[in-house]
Design brief:
single chain, 381 residues, alpha/beta, Aspartate Aminotransferase, domain 2, Aspartate Aminotransferase, domain 1, 2 domains, seven-stranded mixed β-sheet, five-stranded mixed β-sheet, 15 helices, 12 strands, 37% helix, globular
Length: 381
């Protein structure tokens, strides 16, 4: 079946008792058993929930995996995935990973004896140099947050597998509509479902999809043991959001291209980071690896003062940390999403005080560019 059909129908079977076309919200903590040791596949809601199960089935199909497990947040999914490594193991990770992931790796998991190397994953040679005999996991993010750098997922996956490491890709920015990392060679893909999958800024969640039955078995054990599950209401909201993923992403994509082109022509903007621009260093890779260029853009206004003036002037664009909603959201990475990264490292990576990130929504694009144009007027010539 086609991707749009799978978004709507995978995991979304009509309710057998009523025929309801929408999967019900099974808001229950436990299930009555017919007799000792005899139940209908559900015992306790931390372990099994029909609404969550429907979402997991849906995402396994969309990402072409053998199974998926849904968690209470994107970081809960990342935490569960991190249990594939143990004390003494080494992880190679993108140096442009999400700030929350960096914080978790360096301030929590490192305390338990796991070692990390943060490298430019756009440079395969640098990734190769970072590998050690103890490297067990390669953590990729493509496009990265917030510089929109890409990495060659098939190439890096092959390198990692030759050295006995599993490959994890944070696919939040692209969504499975634009990119399918498991098809490209990765072992595990995860999302903050809060973002494009849900699409309506009304749910927090995360999901991990795996290619291997052994990895699914372990992830299921971790999900049940740690208990950071996605609740039935949030599972239902994400399922509902995914039904319109294709039509939303097509509009996000077309608006993103138009906004990036507009920003790229503004003299007050020093640099625009967007894979769809021909000037982007991985533009050709994006055309090979992705179905489109997405709706995430960052641009440098030159100073914190310019960024503050600009962000204080926007009206239609909403100032906030998240992304992927139908409404356009705009943020200041250095003080918001990437504040956990030390300032010298932020600056070295391009997360400068003047950098602004925009998640382009599905409004009329003429209204968005008009808002950005009037906000740029707040910056001195």
């Amino acid at each position: 079946m086609g991707f749009s059909t799978e978004c709507i129908h995978a995991g979304n079977l009509p309710d057998p008792s009523t025929g309801a076309v929408a999967v019900p919200i099974y808001q229950t903590s436990t299930y009555v058993q017919e007799a000792l040791g005899k139940h209908k596949g559900y015992e306790y809601a931390r372990t099994q929930n029909p609404t969550r199960h429907a979402l997991e089935e849906n995402m396994a199909v969309l990402e072409k995996g053998v199974g998926a497990r849904a968690f209470a947040s994107g970081m809960a999914a990342a935490t569960a995935i991190s249990t594939f490594v143990k004390s003494g193991d080494h992880v190679v990770c993108s140096n442009m990973t999400y700030g929350g992931t960096y914080r978790y790796y360096t301030q929590i998991q490192a305390r338990y004896g796991v070692e990390f190397s943060f490298v430019d994953t756009a440079d395969p040679a640098e990734v190769l140099r970072a590998f050690r005999p103890t490297t067990r996991l390669l953590h990729l993010e493509s496009p990265t947050n917030p510089i929109m750098t890409l990495c060659d997922i098939p190439l890096l996956s092959g390198m990692a597998h030759e050295r006995g490491a599993i490959v994890v890709v944070d696919n939040t920015f692209a969504s499975p509509y634009l990119q399918q990392p498991l098809v490209l060679g990765a072992d595990i893909v995860y999302h903050s479902t809060t973002k494009f999958l849900n699409g309506h800024s009304d749910s927090i969640g995360g999901i991990a999809v795996v290619k291997s039955p052994e990895h699914l078995e372990w992830l299921s054990f971790v999900q049940n043991s740690s208990g950071a599950i996605l609740g039935p209401m949030d599972s239902w909201l994400v399922l509902r959001g995914i039904k319109t993923l294709v039509v939303r992403m097509e509009r996000h994509e077309s608006n993103g291209r138009a906004v990036a082109a507009f920003l790229d022509g503004q003299p007050k903007i020093r640099k625009v980071n967007y894979p769809g621009l021909a000037t982007h260093p991985q533009h050709e890779l994006a055309k090979r690896q992705m179905r489109g260029f997405g709706a995430m853009i960052s641009f440098d206004l030159g100073s914190f003062e310019n960024a503050a003036a600009f962000l204080g002037r926007v009206r239609l664009c909403s100032l906030g940390e998240s992304l992927g909603g139908v409404e356009t959201l705009i943020s200041h990475p250095a003080s918001m999403t990437h504040a956990a990264i030390p300032e010298p490292e932020r600056s070295r990576l391009g997360v400068t005080p003047g950098l602004v990130r925009i998640s382009v929504g599905i409004e009329d694009v003429e209204d968005l560019t008009a808002d950005l144009a009037q906000a740029l007027e707040a910056i001195p010539a």
